[in-house]
Amino acid sequence: MPSTSRSPARAADPVSLPVKRRLEAPVRGLLRLVLLLAGLSLLVRPGAARQAAIASAHPLATAAGFETLAAGGNLFDAAVTVSAVLAVVQPESSGLGGGGFWLLRRADGRVSMIDGRERAPLAASADMYLDAAGRPIPRRSLDGPLAAGIPGEPAALALIARRYGRLPLARSLAPAIRLARDGFVVDEAYRRYAGFRRRAIAASPGAAAQFLDHGEVPAAGWRLRQPDLARTLERLAAEGRDGFYAGKTARLLVAGVRAAGGIWTGRDLAEYRAVERAPIRVDYAGLRVFSAAPPSSGGVALAEMLHMLDRFDLDALTAVQRKHLLIEVMRRAYRDRARFLGDPDQVAIPLKRLLDPAYANSLIRDLSFGAAGRSRPLPPDPSGKGLDTTHFSMADSEGNAVAATLSINYGFGSGFVPPGTGVLLNDEMDDFSMRPGVPNVYGLVGGRANAIAPGRRMLSSMSPTLVETPKGLGVLGTPGGSRIITMVLLGILDIAAGEGPDHWVRRRRFHHQYLPDEVQYEPGAFSAQELRGLRLLGHRLRPLDDTYGDMQAVWRAKGGHLEAASDPRGSGAAQVKTIRVSTSPSDGP
Ligand code: GLY
């Protein structure tokens, strides 16, 4: 604030100077107050309202996101909160012992990806899950600490809070700490997955004590309390990434893993870093799509599929031709996924070629509308319903947005909790290719680009996605293993057709992943006429008994109007709320 007494001209005024001096202290105080209030009315506008939309796979996570916004956090603080609460209330799907990808869009349109994907321990080797004859040892990459990659979620949350957030990490993590300590009543998804993975959980005393009730799947109404996890979260809140990757938590994690036959060392944790990367960007039919870059395969596969589709006039096709075309572009993109994709920091990915729209011409050269294509035959896909990962989408009226897909891989991950940590470890090592041609738990095959190597990030299908259109911004994503990418593709096509988020999350889905050579589809995904037509073309059609996916979606119209939708297949919550904040409504660093 300018001080009159510093002005030489006024200081020379012998009459006014003493008076001013006498008044100076209280006036300056008053002036400060007036300016402060004026500033607040311009910048802070107490009571100023903004809107935000959050769709997540659990009502407690959605509610906690709004709690952080109401406490003055920006959308990125709320993303930290929602991630951490999902880690507590949906242990079957994601957690501090896992990883994920966060797509962050600032109101000025800049989009960035935070890669918190797990990586292989430094003592990992290409054949660690094979027997002497080179055959995969059943369940070794799925159950127990040997199946676990080095977690990335804690580092990612600390990085998002530091680079993008406004609140201290301790404030954004407070709801998760509270829910871990005080507990919450488990839902049906928890009970279903606890039953599905009971054997693996029961084999780990730390996990059994935390997630089972005297060794059994808890009854409905059971309250899950996780005091060890609360303390681990508190150390993360107090010390940032070092609160997890160094000190007491790191010591407990490494000791617990090694005592149970795992291969982690302190160096694995100390060297882990979340990485900020440029997302994949693809332009299609007037839309601008941003999705996850490698080590996720999502963005590249989506880009290839959209570029192929761009070669055709979809409106001129019959319903059968349109479905046939979609199946054929899925087949080709998943073939490239298996051939080329892996950890960008360790393998050479021909990204420029794969993302070149002209490359699509060579992919569709053998595409015929007279017959289904062919993939080399393989064993059937054993993948389940696909709730073993989680997703949330959020946006605010200013144009900030977050799409995040988080995972510990299979339901309840490896089923292993290092004693004293409360941290359920992932079994993401199964996302590596054990051996060329050997399918993982999702039936996905891969080659050398996704072979196990020390410190390498395993290829993922997680595809948090943002879609900019002339009319607004779509935010979407879903769990579902290998089917994630095709679910997101169908969602993008719905956006292109002008449909709203309620339609993206409800629509019936179908999927082809190159191998096995079959079209998996939900009940009702094809009409009787489409089924006949596709069969005549030679497609092998595999009806699924159940639905799959748990898409969480948000739409922000150009003027700021928000909509949110949560997949009816899951038990998530989507809400649009007006936030009354006591701090600046403008977000971003
Ligand atoms: N664990 C599932 C994925 O990352 O694709």
- Shape descriptor reads globular
Which sheet architecture does the biggest sheet show?
A: 7 strands, antiparallel
Terminal CA distance reads: 25 Å
Which structural class fits the helix and strand makeup?
alpha+beta
Biggest sheet: strand arrangement: 6-3-2-10-9-1-18
Fraction of residues in β-strands = 15-25%
Count of DSSP E strands? 18
Total number of distinct structural domains: 1
Number of alpha- plus pi-helical segments: 20
Report the bound ligands by name, code or SMILES: glycine
Low-confidence residue ranges: 1-47, 377-384, 584-589
If you compute it from the alpha carbons, what radius of gyration comes out, rounded to the nearest whole angstrom?
26 Å
Helix content: 25-40%
- How confident overall, as mean pLDDT? 90
Question: Could you name the key traits of this structure?
Answer:
589 residues, alpha+beta, 6-stranded antiparallel beta sheet, 18 strands, globular, disordered N terminus, disordered C terminus, binds glycine
Describe the secondary structure blueprint for this structure:
Layout: H1 8-11, H2 16-44, E1 49-56, H3 59-70, H4 75-89, E2 99-105, E3 111-116, H5 153-163, H6 169-182, E4 184-185, H7 188-196, H8 198-202, H9 205-211, E5 223-224, H10 227-239, H11 242-245, H12 247-259, H13 266-271, E6 275-277, E7 280-284, E8 287-291, H14 298-309, H15 319-340, H16 351-355, H17 359-363, E9 389-396, E10 401-407, E11 465-469, E12 472-476, H18 484-496, H19 501-506, E13 510-511, E14 519-521, H20 528-536, E15 541-543, E16 552-557, E17 562-566, E18 573-580
Helix pairs in contact: 3-4, 4-5, 4-6, 6-10, 14-15, 14-18, 15-20
The protein binds glycine (GLY).
